[in-house]
Amino acid sequence: MSFLNTDFPKHPHPVLKAEEIEKSMFDMGHWRNPNAKRKTTCLSDKVGMANTGVAVHKSILEPNTESTANHYHLSNTEWIYILSGTAVLQLVDASLPILNPFQPFSETPSSDSASSSKKPKLDNNGSSSTQYKIEEVPVSQGDFIGFPGGIGASRYAHSLKSGENGCEYLVGGDRGGSGVVHYPSANAADIWERGADGRFTVAGAPPHNGC
Fold this sequence. Notes:
The protein has three helices and twelve strands, in the order βαββαβββαββββββ. By secondary structure, it is mostly beta strands. A hairpin with a 4-residue loop joins strand 10 and strand 11. The two termini are 27 Å apart. It is 7% helix and 44% strand. It has a single domain (2-205), classed as Sandwich (Jelly Rolls), CATH 2.60.120.10. It is globular, with a radius of gyration of 19 Å. Strands 2, 3, 4, 6, 7, 8 and 9 form a seven-stranded antiparallel β-sheet that branches. Strands 1-12-11-10-5 form a five-stranded antiparallel β-sheet, with no helix packed on it. It comes from Kwoniella dendrophila CBS 6074. This is Cupin type-1 domain-containing protein. Residues 106-133 are annotated as: Disordered.
């Protein structure tokens, strides 16, 4: 899948007015969650920061709506700041097994016992049949949420579901030239890269067996 953000102003004014932000909001679903739908826009791109490695989005969820598929980023940080409304942060412990790279191939890989217990079981289609326990954390106006990237990010795979009155929030993080996003419940991962022209290309990685 490839898509192009053509709305990169070359020499924008540094002030992005509220009415401009409102006009730039668009509906966005998620290819791995048919129930996810949000209105969003990239504020940082609008003020000429598309190539700085910084991304800040404003997003709005209608009442009782999911933001994305539950996920974590291996190579990027992510943060969320709740502007208004309420939501439930859905957290999943999908901790990855820590392997010994010097262990002979013929031996069974050693790993943290807690992580090993979460090894995905695959169905005939390669999807995960593992039922992860979801920790639900209520969040509301003024709350801040942060996710460092890296292997440890698998401890807190996450998604957001709005409350009865919807939820408005800022979401952002560092944005390099490429990244990996993992979806534990689907036993799937996406690899993305961003070209100099602003085009994002997303490729689905094949399912893994938990090793």
